[in-house]
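Cross-check.
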Amino acid sequence: MATVKYTTIPAAHGPIPVEVHLPEKLARRTVILHFQGGGFVTHFSAQNEGLCSRLAEACGCAVASVIYRLAPNHPFPAATDDALVALQWAATMTKDLVVCGESAGGALAAASTLLARTRGGPTIAQQWLIYPMLAGGMDTDSRKNAVDDQPMANIRAGWSAYTEGNVDMTDPMAAPLHANDLSGLPSALIIVGENDPLRDEAMLYAGRLHRAGVAVDLHRFADAPHGFLTSSKTQGQREEAFELMRNRLT
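Predicted model, tokenized:
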């Protein structure tokens, strides 16, 4: 089992907590910088710890999970600012940095790669976007035809709290799908479930990355819902997703 160490990253507003998950056998110097889901408003500590520990063991490397600030007390751009500080911190520890996030964390992972490109660094080897929240107000088929209304209700509430209703939802730092230029970004692994209301925006982002010349590996998991990496009901698909991530590092 992976062990967990706790540290903090200095920031202008105060220290940012980080959980560092270390596998029993450290096989790589890769660091996976992880941003957890929760719709920008919640940290599911137990679920996140289990996911990151399994990811560390599957990939044989350290996983640093950032406890970024949450809305509504800390609306946009607080979480994005924390993501950039964490990115700069993680880059001092490795030359093989992977940025990873699921759901709201996927938005932060994507936004941080855009920021790193704009600012000329730090260098990111790969971005792993897992059922990412990439656009706030889109009316896609997968949203309209969602099998389960609850995830979509949570997603809408999260966007509302994060943006306070007064943020331009075409700002790519909040909604990366609206970035004008996706060229020059690190290669991407995008994972999404077929029954996820966010499926279509993940696919749109994958298509835009591909057209911009970025290498993209898109995987749609049949019958999988939003959040399937932390669900006990989708163990087989979860393990397949971990295998995909592990293989990206070989």
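The helical segments are 45-59, 78-91, 104-118, 141-144, 149-163, 199-211, 235-247. The CA atoms of residues 36 and 155 lie 14 Å apart. Passed to J.P. for a second look.
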